[in-house]
Amino acid sequence: MNNGVLYLILSLCVGSFSACCTFRNYALFSEPVAALDSAKELQMNGNIGLMRLEANINAAPVNHLGISVSGGLRVPLSARWSANNLQLGAGYFDVYGSHGFEVFGGWGFQNFHVFHDTCQSRNLDFSIAKANEVVISDTFFHYNYFFLQPDVWWNAGAVKLVAAINFKGLGSGDYEFYLKKYNQYFSDTTEQDVSIYQYSGPLHLLLIEPSLQLRFGLHQVRFSMEGKYSFPVTANVNVSKYFSPSTFLFTVGVQFVFHQHDLAEIFNPPHH
Predict the structure, then answer these.
(1) Taking the model in full, what pTM does it have?
(2) Residue 223 lies in a domain
């Protein structure tokens, strides 16, 4: 049994963990780290897990310049929410033998859909607190964001280790509407949910998302594993109300890597 088959079996075994995390109003997606080796390189990545589909394309059209396009769709097994995203980036890379570094930046957006969103409506009845769950209906959140992502990588034979950290500035105007819709269920109660009082307008949030990737393989087809952690730093809303305090994501995937000579063989096959 060759190494490629072993990598595939291992990826399938751990793939079931790739959708085990819970989210509130924002979902994590895999980090599209290029870790480019040289100019004229093309990478195509795919991550498939439980109710998850993601794709990413990285390329180096000239030396030291990289571009990246990625998108994904997530629907958890609980079917309580769904999310999709698209991200565009460009940056600088440099290689020093068996290691290198990059700095990418760009823009993206994410749509997050909460199915049958609920809130707690509290009433006081003879000094006994009662809580009634009220269905608000489906709720949609649209985020735009700018990001800055430095990363470093090391090669050791068939294994490449990539460490990255993404600084993401998230923005959304949907929270102002959401607060009004949320508050209408408290207009006739004697006690309101104090956890939403810190809201002060459209959302502005800074996220820090470090990640670590392992890539296995020497030729065009490689397998990858990624662990990613996300936590909000500062915002003008009560973060604990709308966002998970911190979220961990584990994914597995496959990567196709083509260098200049590989692309030449694909588009200019030898004539017999």
Answers:
(1) 0.77
(2) yes
